[in-house]
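Project channel, design review

CF: Before we commit to the Dioscorea cayennensis subsp. rotundata constructs, I'd like one complete example in the thread so the newer folks can see what an input/output pair looks like. Taking Protein NDH-DEPENDENT CYCLIC ELECTRON FLOW 5 isoform X1.
RD: sounds good, go ahead.
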Amino acid sequence: MASTGHFLSNFTLPPLSTQSKNLNVSQTHLVYKSQSCRNKISMSNRSSIASSTANTVSFDVDYYEKEFSGHGVSFESINNSCVIKMELENGSKASLMLPSGLITSYKPLMWHGGTVEVLHTKVSQKDAGEIVIQGGVSMNFNCAGDAGFRWSPSIWSLHDVRGSSDKYIQVELKSSDSKEMVDFIYLVTLEEALLGSELTITNSSSSSIQMIGSLMSHLTVSSPEATFAVGLQGSSYFCKQPLISNFSIIPPPQNEENVFPDTENEEDDDCASMAGDFSRIYTTAPRQFSVMDRGRRNSVIMQRTGFDELYVYSPGSEHEMYGKYSYVCIGPSATLKPVNVRPGAAWGGAQYLCNPNL
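CF: and here is what came back for Protein NDH-DEPENDENT CYCLIC ELECTRON FLOW 5 isoform X1:
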C-alpha cells in the first residue's frame, strides 16, 4: 500500500457547490436555478411523483425514469422506499434511498480494476415486518428557533438529477418544514474517485435558527484493531457518548460503566489506532484526514468544509472480524457548537469521501 501521506498530498478540497458560510438567500437560489432549470421537478408535479400518508410514502418510479433518463441513474421501488442507483462508466457506483436520504452503498473503482464497498450497513426486520437499514452515510440534524420552533429534516424528496455517467452524477434532495420557512438542500455527487455529501440550509423566517447534528459515515473495515486514523496528531478532542440516530449502529454495552468520560484530550499520534471503543468530537482537527485499514489494504480520505467539528467513533475490537460491528464511524459535526443561521441567510457544509486507491 502506498503511503497515506502521499495520498493526502494528492487530494485538495473540491469547491463546495453550495457556499459554506452565511449567504444572501437570493444569491443561493440563483446557484440552484442555473444548475437545474431543465430537469427540476415543478411543485405542480409533486403529487404525481410521491404521495404520502401518515405512515407511508409511495413513489412514481416510472416518472423518475422518464424524467431523469440519460444521467447515469436508475430507480427501484422497494417496500415504501425508492432506491436511486448511480453508476459511472468507470464502474464506480453509489446508492441512496428516499425518503430517508440514506446513502447505503459506495463502491469506487480500485487499482486492481474492480470495485470495493466502502460503507457498512446493517439490515434487520422489526416485529411488524418492517425492514430497517442502518449505517451508510446518514444525516441527523435538529433545528430550533424562536416561539418554540423545532424541526428535524427526515422526509426527503427528489428535486433534480444532473451530470452524466462519463463525468459525474449529482442527485439533489430537498426537505422543508411544514411552513416552508427552513429549507434543507442535500447534494449527493459521485465522481471517479469521490463521493460528496453537500448540505445547504436556507432560513426564510424572520428570526435566527440554530442547527445541531452531524453527517455520519459508517466505513466498513476488517476490524477496528487493524484500522488507524492518520493525520489528526495535535488535534483537541472531547470524549463523548456516541451520537445516536435512527441510522446509528451501536453495539450493546459490555458493562454498565461509562466508558466515554466527558474529558478533553489531545491526539498525540499521527497514526492513531482505532482498536479501542471510543467516541470523540475533535474541535481543532484538520480539514482532511485518512482512515487506513491494514486488514483490507484500503484507505479512505475524508474531507469536510463548513463544519468546525469532526466526529470519530469506534465500536472496539471485541467483536468478530468482518462482522456486523466491523466498522468505524466518522463525519463532520456541529454538536458542541451549533450553527447559527440568520434570517434571510443560508449556510452550507459538506463531507467528501475520497478514494486514493486508483
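RD: helpful, thanks. Confidence is low (pLDDT under 50) at residues 1-9, 18-55.
CF: Helices lie at 4-10, 25-36, 46-49, 61-67.
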